[in-house]
């Protein structure tokens, strides 16, 4: 069977981003396939775990994608500081002339596809573009592992994630899809009572108050923090307050632009000008505002660059939201850009970000590898929308018995989406438009 169909059947989606269905990506031709193991968000270590423990499977998945897409070159990107893992991986790829290892400097956001592609190929993805525009396909390393597992007949029912922060046992968790955050945090033993979780990394992740929230195919990390941690307070500010703060305090120093990774790439993104427009209502050319769509929401401007602790990222996010809601489609010239002259000198080391976020005390980088634990939940709640595209359609009924790996929800005919499979053996106890619950 063509790889495209296998991945569709087994529900493989991008494990490192928004969960774009992988079967759509492999249906095209590329020159280079990149395995992204950069994992630039501070405190996340699951990609490192995957490369270290499942490196052979990652490489086999990469080879499958290369065969299917006609790519002549495969690259696995990993941080240079992980020396022993790199050595191990070098042995795995020894003799494979078309596959190489690329060692990255430890800065943020080196895992951003645009930055990663530039590091590896020297080419710039055009404004508003995607890696395929310059012949590249980027897949997270866990996605590549899932490709290999799918070829062996295994649907995506588990994922590796990092649980860290205010817990006694920071760990890599192999979580069944649908396990609650509560169960995972309890497994790692919280050290305080009044905590919240940040899902994803501290830079781009979101605060989650409801600990019954289930793990999805794209949950890369659970960061447990005190409710009054500065990062939690910052991430939960209301937009009205953020705008008021900007009006009162933006001094137009332009540091947000100077350090913006997408501006440094050569794109026409000037966060300080967008702030000027929002703050003072000046009549700037409309392209300045619509270029908020070029923002990757990496958060470097709000966490590191801005001396007034303002949030150009949130302002950009809001502009995009409002313009899309008004039916506006951004237009970009697609012209090829050259990186700004100072790009190399403005790469912010991950350690400084961690420090700035006041998260260094939770970092267990020196104690690696983190212990690995597996979840064994009595119940899972599988969300019907946990990928890019439309909500999946249940194909099971209440009281039906299912085994791990059985299909429980299908992609609606002719739509973009992903199949879902049971992650435990049990009985279907609840179905609505958003979820399917299975009890052991
Ligand atoms: S860095 Fe902060 S203060 Fe300076 S221009 Fe940007 S938003 Fe305004
Ligand atoms: S979040 Fe800020 S630093 Fe990051 S791309 Fe957007 S404007 Fe630039």
TrEMBL record:
<dbReference type="InterPro" id="IPR037225">
    <property type="entry name" value="Nuo51_FMN-bd_sf"/>
</dbReference>
<dbReference type="GO" id="GO:0009055">
    <property type="term" value="F:electron transfer activity"/>
</dbReference>
<dbReference type="GO" id="GO:0016020">
    <property type="term" value="C:membrane"/>
</dbReference>
<keyword id="KW-0813">Transport</keyword>
<dbReference type="GO" id="GO:0051539">
    <property type="term" value="F:4 iron, 4 sulfur cluster binding"/>
</dbReference>
<dbReference type="InterPro" id="IPR011538">
    <property type="entry name" value="Nuo51_FMN-bd"/>
</dbReference>
<dbReference type="InterPro" id="IPR017054">
    <property type="entry name" value="PduS"/>
</dbReference>
<protein>
    <recommendedName>
        <fullName>4Fe-4S ferredoxin-type domain-containing protein</fullName>
    </recommendedName>
</protein>
<dbReference type="Pfam" id="PF01512">
    <property type="entry name" value="Complex1_51K"/>
</dbReference>
<keyword id="KW-0249">Electron transport</keyword>
<dbReference type="InterPro" id="IPR010208">
    <property type="entry name" value="Ion_transpt_RnfC/RsxC"/>
</dbReference>
<dbReference type="InterPro" id="IPR017896">
    <property type="entry name" value="4Fe4S_Fe-S-bd"/>
</dbReference>
<dbReference type="InterPro" id="IPR017900">
    <property type="entry name" value="4Fe4S_Fe_S_CS"/>
</dbReference>
<keyword id="KW-0408">Iron</keyword>
<keyword id="KW-0411">Iron-sulfur</keyword>
<dbReference type="Pfam" id="PF13534">
    <property type="entry name" value="Fer4_17"/>
</dbReference>
<dbReference type="Pfam" id="PF13375">
    <property type="entry name" value="RnfC_N"/>
</dbReference>
<dbReference type="GO" id="GO:0046872">
    <property type="term" value="F:metal ion binding"/>
</dbReference>
<keyword id="KW-0004">4Fe-4S</keyword>
<dbReference type="InterPro" id="IPR026902">
    <property type="entry name" value="RnfC_N"/>
</dbReference>
<feature type="domain" description="4Fe-4S ferredoxin-type">
    <location>
        <begin position="286"/>
        <end position="317"/>
    </location>
</feature>
<keyword id="KW-0479">Metal-binding</keyword>
<keyword id="KW-0677">Repeat</keyword>
């Amino acid at each position: 069977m063509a790889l495209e169909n296998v991945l569709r059947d087994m529900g493989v989606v991008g494990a490192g981003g928004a969960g774009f269905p992988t079967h759509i990506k492999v249906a095209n031709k590329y020159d280079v396939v990149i395995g992204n193991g950069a994992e630039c968000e501070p405190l996340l270590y699951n990609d490192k775990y995957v490369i270290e423990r499942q490196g052979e499977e990652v490489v086999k998945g990469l080879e499958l994608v290369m065969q299917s897409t006609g790519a002549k070159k495969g690259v696995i990107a990993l941080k240079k500081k992980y020396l022993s893992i790199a050595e191990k991986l070098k042995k795995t790829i020894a003799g494979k002339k078309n596959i190489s290892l690329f060692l990255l400097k430890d800065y943020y956001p080196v895992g951003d596809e645009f930055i990663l592609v530039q590091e590896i190929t020297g080419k710039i993805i055009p404004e508003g573009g995607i890696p395929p525009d310059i012949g590249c396909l980027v897949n997270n390393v866990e996605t590549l592992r899932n490709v290999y597992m799918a070829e062996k007949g295994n649907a995506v029912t588990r994922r590796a994630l990092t649980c860290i922060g205010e817990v006694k046992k920071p760990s890599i968790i192999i979580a069944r899809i649908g396990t609650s955050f509560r169960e995972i945090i309890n497994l790692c033993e919280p050290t305080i009572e009044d905590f919240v979780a940040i899902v994803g990394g501290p830079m781009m992740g979101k605060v989650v108050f409801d600990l019954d929230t289930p793990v999805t195919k794209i949950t890369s990390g659970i960061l447990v923090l005190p409710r009054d941690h500065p990062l939690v307070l910052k991430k939960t500010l209301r937009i009205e307050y953020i705008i008021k703060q900007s009006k009162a305090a933006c001094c137009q120093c332009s540091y947000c632009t100077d350090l913006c990774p997408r501006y440094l790439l050569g794109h026409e993104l000037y966060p300080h000008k967008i702030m000027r427009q929002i703050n003072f209502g000046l009549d700037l050319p409309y392209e300045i505002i619509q270029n908020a769509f070029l923002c990757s929401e990496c958060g470097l401007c709000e966490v590191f660059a801005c001396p007034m602790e303002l949030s150009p990222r949130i302002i950009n996010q809001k502009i995009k939201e409002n313009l899309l809601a008004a039916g506006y489609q951004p237009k970009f010239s697609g012209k090829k850009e050259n990186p700004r002259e100072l790009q190399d000198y403005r790469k912010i080391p991950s350690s400084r970000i961690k420090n700035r976020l006041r998260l260094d005390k939770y970092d267990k980088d020196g104690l690696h590898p983190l212990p690995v634990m597996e979840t064994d939940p009595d119940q899972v709640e599988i969300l019907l929308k946990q990928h890019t595209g439309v909500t999946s359609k249940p194909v099971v009924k209440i009281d039906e018995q299912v085994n791990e790996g059985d299909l429980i929800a299908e992609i609606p005919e002719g739509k973009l989406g992903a199949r879902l499979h049971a992650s435990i053996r049990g009985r279907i106890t609840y179905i609505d438009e958003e979820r399917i619950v299975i009890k052991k």
